[in-house]
């Protein structure tokens, strides 16, 4: 418990399972949730509808969605419709094609700009170093270094804290944390290729980790599958 | 001289005097210029037209403009049309209202993402610590820290260099450098409140430093004033 309900915190909200848990955690920590989402041409646009539902359900004080038109491909199968999102492949060591270059860095940069305006000292990000699919910008060292940078990047007269409470939790631990906080995971969408009704494919990386998480947590999976 | 004309470098290009000098410098250093501009609702949209002119004139291999819709105000007089851009006020110590929170951080984040895709190792940014209007994200320490972050933020197997060759130059030195490189400053727009024809106001911070620079450099100022 480190905020008061009038103290704003910026919460990066994708509409997935992790960031929903994050938003409820920020509220439980006593902050006025200022949710920040991005429309960057991702395939899984139903995520943005999920982010809206989550922001409303958690009682966010504000929810801003920044639209980004990259003016060309990102090289990622998450945004380029001529690339297929691959199925989960166990034991794969390489960076998957769903990797969007510098995505968390970009998202944190916008979050920091908003935090400075709000005079918010804390930014919540739902990165996870356990089930992280090998993304380099989900590593603890990245979060620590970004915090150092944040503290010299702005005109603010206070320090910033990049708060990543899910960093060392397994997916099952995240789900159990969320259950205790009262998160309704039926509102969230994790699938990289959900259909227009928000139904999950059940076969991509993201679905794999989510299903495994509910199984390991012993919690009924509320996900709707296509 | 560190690149070959086939080696890509990402060059942050605003269409102003500094970044035009930067683009010519990158070409002189032997790189294939990959120019990156941002349409973030700035008042001085004629800057973007200037960026197009500069990219063509320098023979850029590519020019990408990323559109960003902040989904709300930035708190800066550069983008919020209900705020007036102030005249230059000598000796002002405070951060001016034209400051856009975390702007260079956000721009560098996008540049890094593109550099990773291009397998480019060098990013050119035209920040300047001398005539820098007090912006915190123009300080040498900020650039150094961003480079450290860049080198853990991506999946690249090579280091990145954030190259800021104008950092310690006065405006007059920048102009003399550009003259030697053959920059046509008539293509550029620096004014924060240029009119639709790209004519400068002659009274804002940016005009002040530009005029002073041409005077100090002993170079004829090609700027068109309203």
Automatic annotation (TrEMBL), chains A, B:
InterPro entries: QueC, Rossmann-like_a/b/a_fold. ATP binds at residues 13-23. It catalyses: 7-carboxy-7-carbaguanine + NH4(+) + 2 ATP = 7-cyano-7-carbaguanine + 2 AMP + 2 diphosphate + 2 H(+). Its cofactor is Zn(2+). GO terms for biological process: tRNA queuosine(34) biosynthetic process. Keywords: ATP-binding, Ligase, Metal-binding, Nucleotide-binding, Queuosine biosynthesis, Zinc. Binds 1 zinc ion per subunit. Pathway: Purine metabolism; 7-cyano-7-deazaguanine biosynthesis. Zn(2+) binds at residues 191, 201, 204, 207. GO terms for molecular function: ATP binding; ligase activity, forming carbon-nitrogen bonds; zinc ion binding. Its EC number is 6.3.4.20. Catalyzes the ATP-dependent conversion of 7-carboxy-7-deazaguanine (CDG) to 7-cyano-7-deazaguanine (preQ(0)). Belongs to the QueC family. This is 7-cyano-7-deazaguanine synthase. It comes from Guyparkeria halophila.
């Amino acid at each position: 418990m480190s905020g008061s309900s009038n103290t704003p915190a910026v919460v990066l909200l994708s509409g997935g399972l992790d960031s929903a848990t994050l938003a409820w955690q920020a509220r439980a920590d006593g902050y006025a949730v200022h949710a920040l989402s991005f429309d960057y041409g991702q395939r899984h646009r139903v995520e943005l509808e999920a982010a809206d539902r989550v922001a409303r359900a958690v009682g966010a004080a504000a929810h801003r969605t920044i639209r980004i038109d990259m003016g060309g491909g990102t090289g990622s199968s998450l945004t380029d419709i001529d690339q297929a999102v691959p199925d989960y492949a166990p034991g794969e060591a390489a960076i998957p094609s769903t990797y969007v270059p510098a995505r968390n860095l970009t998202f944190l940069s916008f979050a920091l700009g908003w935090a400075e305006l709000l005079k918010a000292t804390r930014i919540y990000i739902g990165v996870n170093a356990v089930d992280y699919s090998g993304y380099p910008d989900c590593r603890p060292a990245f979060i620590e270094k970004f915090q150092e940078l944040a503290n010299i990047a702005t005109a603010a007269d206070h320090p910033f804290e990049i708060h990543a409470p899910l960093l060392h939790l397994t997916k099952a631990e995240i789900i159990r944390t969320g259950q205790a906080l009262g998160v309704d995971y039926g509102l969230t969408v994790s699938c990289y290729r959900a259909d227009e009704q928000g139904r999950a494919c059940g076969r991509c990386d993201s679905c794999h980790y989510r299903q495994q998480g509910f199984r390991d947590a012993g919690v009924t999976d509320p996900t709707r599958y296509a």
